[in-house]
Specification:
CATH class: Alpha Beta
Shape: globular
Bound molecules: NADP nicotinamide-adenine-dinucleotide phosphate
CATH topology: Rossmann fold
Strand order of the largest sheet: 3-2-1-4-5-6-7
Order of helices and strands: EHEHEHEHEHEHHHHEHH
CATH superfamily: NAD(P)-binding Rossmann-like Domain
Oligomer: single chain
Strand content: 5-15%
CATH architecture: 3-Layer(aba) Sandwich
Number of domains: 1
Number of helices: 11
Number of strands: 7
Distance between the termini: 52 Å
């Protein structure tokens, strides 16, 4: 059984992957863990992982695109636990596509989950985090710093989340709330499967972008099969953001992620990043 503290953390998107691993790790670290998912009928893996780890979770419904579910879940947490000390914006979804081949409606949908979802959850939680002098943590991605081919919409949403949080950080800090972003590279979760892309079909349907998409997919498939980090490894970084006395604003979850993000952060004219990613589509 976990050691106990009185602090309460709410995590979004805990049905699988990083959210599930983080929920178990937070509970193991002694946090009262509110593990939320948009579809409670998909909680089986989460319950099993918690049982195996010998920890208790408070499992509740929350869809980050449904404001009323956010408000009622946060109100329920306050009513039952009396406080909220940390929020981990983890829910997100990948998307593959390029401008000419996708509709603006598809781009908006990617922004809804990966950006506006983060904003809505954070906004509802903020007054409570101010009261607890708590933490607001968002799982972005290395794709929140480095733009990647066929990920225009996804990277735009993650860039937006990073810009939002970087801008909010000093304002929140003035009220005792620490804000940080956690940036994984490739992680072995349901993420790629959930994008729902059949590579052969996607290339066939990509028209004149087929050769570039094929090269990109080959590289990405190799990257995920050779060097993907575990969800538990990412969870360790999230727990660092949750518990370190003074967490950094930007936390990469692996050496690979640190190196990749560093390319961008010292790339004043954009040539280093494009020198790298141009090679991904040939
Ligand atoms: P995952 O296994 O697909 O998990 C994504 C989670 O988000 C699932 O629980 C999913 O729930 C949930 N979700 C999706 N839409 C939601 C909504 N509207 N409301 C609430 N929950 C929703 O992928 P993951 O790798 O753990 O992803 C977690 C986070 O890490 C995401 O923000 C992702 O962008 C980021 N990330 C992942 C990688 C990677 O390579 N895996 C790399 C960098 C960053 P359902 O089961 O209901 O779909």
């Amino acid at each position: 059984m976990s050691s106990s503290n009185s602090k309460v953390v709410l995590i979004t998107g805990t049905s699988s992957g990083i959210g599930l691993a983080t929920a178990v790790s937070a509970a193991r670290a002694g946090w009262k863990t509110v593990a939320t998912l948009r579809d409670p009928s998909r909680s089986e893996a989460l319950r099993k992982a918690a049982d195996e780890a010998g920890v208790e979770l408070d499992i509740r419904r929350l869809d980050v695109t449904d404001e009323s579910s956010i408000v009622s879940t946060v109100e329920g947490v306050l009513a039952d636990h009396g406080q909220l000390d940390a929020v981990i914006n983890n829910a997100g979804a990948g998307h593959l596509g390029t401008m000419e081949n996708e509709s603006v409606a598809e781009v908006r949908k990617v922004m809804e989950v990966n950006f506006f979802g983060v904003v809505q959850v954070s906004k509802v939680a903020m007054a409570h985090l101010r009261a607890s002098r708590g933490r607001l943590i968002t799982i972005t991605s290395v794709g929140g710093v480095v733009g990647q081919p066929f990920n225009e919409a996804y990277c735009a949403a993650k860039f937006a989340a990073e810009g939002y949080m970087e801008s909010l950080a000093p304002v929140a800090a003035a009220h005792g709330v620490s804000v940080c972003v956690v940036e994984p590279g490739a992680v072995a979760t349901e993420f790629v499967t959930n994008v729902g892309v059949d590579p052969q079909r996607a290339v066939a349907e990509a028209g004149s972008y087929g050769p570039q998409l094929s090269a990109y997919l080959n590289r990405t498939i190799a990257q995920f099969s050779d060097g993907a980090q575990s969800a538990e490894g990412v969870a360790d970084s999230v727990i660092e953001a949750l518990t370190a006395p003074e967490p950094a604003f930007r936390i990469q979850t692996s050496d690979w992620a640190r190196g990749f993000v560093a390319t961008k952060l010292s790339d004043l004219d954009g040539s280093a990043v494009l020198g790298l990613t141009n090679g991904w589509v040939v």
